[in-house]
Design goal:
The protein is built from five helices and no strands. The chain is an all-alpha fold. The longest helix is centred in the middle third of the chain and has 39 residues.
Amino acid sequence: MNTPQSMASGLFSPLLEPSSSHVRFAQALGWGSLVLAAGVSYYYAKQSIDERRKSQEVAGSRPVEKLDWRARIAQQEQPGHTNAVPTGTDKANSSALSTASAKTVAANVKDGS
């Protein structure tokens, strides 16, 4: 009788044989692809993170001292504290906002407002 187990074992029997050289090659290829993809993505992520850190340091928006999470929370809870690094903004949005606000200020100056 055809049960799901017997159908699956017949369908995947070439893949389930541990002595098959095709299985070893496929596993090695799969793991190699995974490791290669992880390495490439780490490389590009590290580049963009370093670039962002350098631009923040040049702009003066990167904190100088290294704080653990307890000290960072205590510093943020102090009255009058502002975050040095803006959250949720990127270069395109901030430049578009600054351009729009500059146009608004220019229009208000012309109108005398």
